[in-house]
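Appendix B. One record, verbatim.
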Amino acid sequence: MKTGTNNNEKYQALISLFKKAKEAAIASDPGDTNDGGTCNLDSPAFSVPQMRTETIKEIAFKAGLNVCEFSHRGKRAFWLGVPLHGQGNRRAKMARAAGNVLRDFGDAGSIPGFRGWTYYAMD
């Protein structure tokens, strides 16, 4: 999908992407005995310009997830609510796995302007 992608294709691509990010987070879970390190709020994040917040929330809902809007470097962005267990290294690993899925999708240019990353924040 490149420039000219219709809205339904974008919608379906994002549903699929969010499901893949969730699956990546779950698959990377090292287990509850592997949660050392600094307590953190690491989370997968993304931005997608020219798409309404309500549409993004609806897409996340269809993928069985939720999103939370925030401002990142002065622009609208979203945290993707994939399962993140633990509060240290375990959470960081799961967030990074989902964030990498989002980043790779953005790097591929599937939806113009889409950008994904892992948001790192120590508590």
